[in-house]
Structure formats: structure tokens, C-alpha cells
Amino acid sequence: MGTNKSKWVKYKPLLWMIAIPALNIIYGILNEHSSEVRMLITPLDRQIPFLPAFIIPYIVWYPFIALTLLFIFLKDVRVYFKTLLALCLGLLVSYVFYYYFQTTVPRPKVGEGGILNYLVQFIYAHDLPYNCFPSIHVLTSYLMMKGARVLKRWGRLTVQFIGIMIIASTLFVKQHVLADVGMAIIVAECTFLLAKLILPYLMKLKLRVVAIATHEAG
């Protein structure tokens, strides 16, 4: 019994992924038309075609984030925490942008019939065209690509390929524009660096708290 318990204890850090859906509550609150909504679309964005087939990688994003974090955790717990912390910081930075600089992206008319068109319509219906700058799909996918560098070659290449497809999908299904992609990458780079700097202090703080709790219990 004790052996089984200790076996599962090592997976407890995975529970910190609950922070992602918890923070997404803020996304839902901010995903609405504010008093001033901007459009960052450029002539180059207008040249990018609408390709319903890219809704597949766009939707794959949901399990992609969780599974990539899991594989990173199994390979290197420290990199897992750094990547997850960078992701959470990135979400918070994005929410500040959404609150003070709300943007929208014009959506194309979607054709009738076909599973791909249905999936696009489903996403459009359940995700209002706000909270665009920076793109969370791009931000988080880019962070997974950075964190996945600790994986073996096949795993690293798989994450990179899927990540690139997801980033491209945000443009081809007209959920985002180029400015959203660019800013997401900048935010991801900054939060990944910030997470690298502050993670050691958080680890020391955790050890100190555990030591105090153990001393008081004794």
C-alpha cells in the first residue's frame, strides 16, 4: 500500500496544470466587445487564404498542450515547471492586453455542409472574435516547442511540427492576424526567460515552507 502511494506521489506536480483552466476563467470574462475594439489586420493578412482544413490542427491544440506538458514532465521535472510557469505568466500578460487593448478579427463567411465547415462554425460560435492580441494558441504552442527541447529527437520534432501547424492554423482559419502571432512569440520568449529567472526562488521558498511545516509537526 505504501509503495503504491509513493508511486503516485511523484506525479503530484502534474496537478499544477489545473492552473491553466483556472486562469482561462479570466479569458471568458474578457472575451466580449468593450468600449473600444481595434482591428490590426493588414493588406498582407488579407492575402492569407481561408482554409477550413486547418481547423483540425487548431482543435488539436487542446490535447496538444496537456500531452506535451506530460511528456516534458516525464523527461525533466524542472523544465516542466519552467514551461508551465511561463505559460501561466503568458496568460496573465495576455489578459492585461485584452483588458486594455481589445482587438477583433473579421471572420469570413463559412460554406454550408462538410465536417470541416461544421467544425469552423462550431469554433466561431463558441469563441467570440475578441481576445486576439496576442494569440494564446500561438503563445502556448510556442512555449511547448521551447520546453520540448529536452525530449528525444522524434518527440522534439513531433512537437515542433504540430506547434507550427497550430500557429499556421490561427491565420488560415482567420482567428488571428500576423500581429497577434508576432506579439505572442515575443510574450512567450519573455515569460520563458522570466520563468527561468524566478523558478529557483520559488523552489527555495517551497523548501523553506516544507522545512517549517515539518519542524512544527515534529
From TrEMBL:
Keywords: Membrane, Transmembrane, Transmembrane helix. Residues 82-202 form the Phosphatidic acid phosphatase type 2/haloperoxidase domain. The chain crosses the membrane at residues 12-30, 50-72, 79-101, 128-145, 157-175, 181-199. This is Phosphatidic acid phosphatase type 2/haloperoxidase domain-containing protein. The lineage of its organism: Bacteria, Bacillati, Bacillota, Bacilli, Bacillales.
